Amino acid sequence: MLYLELFWLLERLGCDYFDLLARFPAQAEFDERELAVLVSMSPEPKLSYAVTETNVRRCIYRWTPSKYHSDTIGNTVRSICSLMKAGCPCLRIYHSNRNEKNPRAADDKYILLITKSKILFLDVCRKYVFEFEHRTEEPS
After folding, report:
1. Is residue 89's pLDDT more than 60?
2. How far apart are CA 127 and CA 73, in angstroms?
3. What does the DSSP assignment read for 104-134?
4. Residue 58 above 80 pLDDT?
5. Disulfide: which of 43, 47, 129, 136 matches 87 by Cβ 3.0-4.6 Å?
6. pLDDT at 2
7. d(CA 86, CA 36)
8. What secondary structure letter does DSSP report for 48?
9. Which of 56, 2, 11, 67 has its CA nearest to residue 29?
10. CA quadruple 63, 65, 69, 70: dihedral positive or negative?
11. Nearest C-alpha neighbor of 133 from the set 76, 92, 84
12. Range from 17-21, 61-65, 75-79, 91-95 that averages highest in pLDDT
């Protein structure tokens, strides 16, 4: 994918990983190989956690009560936990206040990055990487 090749080139030229991620289009789709490349290029995780709603919420520094967020904080945390527990490879972007009418409004961007071997949750604004245990749920 062109996005990933450009990302790799710019990162190798010294551009910041988080600044590049912040510019990825929300609708970009990545296959497992591309997700693995993004994970391999990421900085070392700041902390490692078990997958619980409390731990996911701990990684979300700010979530505004505005109508422009991705969803309520509770629904967002539950959705993130479900994706983490399922373990299906994906890249999801969450916004705390994506107000396109006021681009200067504070909007914290968070990215969930899941591969077959790793789960990373990134706080793009603060440039933090959090790792979560990768254990898929057993079917009942």
Report:
1. yes
2. 20
3. TS---EEEEEE-SS-EEEEETTTTEEEEE--
4. yes
5. 136
6. 56
7. 17
8. E
9. 2
10. positive
11. 84
12. 75-79
Contact 49, 113 (CB under 8 A): no
Question: Burial letters for 37-69: b for 16+ Cβ neighbours within 10 Å, e otherwise?
Answer: bbbeebeebeeebebeeebbeebbeebbeeeeb
How far is Cα 16 from Cα 22, in angstroms, rounded to an integer?
10
Residue 62, both tokens: 């700010």
**CA pair distance 105, 65, nearest whole angstrom:** 13
Whether residue 107 contacts residue 97, with contact meaning beta carbons closer than 8 Å, is answered with: yes
Place of tokens 């999801």: 92
Radius of gyration of the chain from Cα atoms? 15
Number of Cβ within a 10 Å radius of residue 133: 12
pTM of the model: 0.85
Report which residue type is found at 68.
Y
Specify the DSSP class assigned to residue 13.
T
Number of residues assigned to the chain: 140
Map residue 39 onto helix, strand or coil: helix
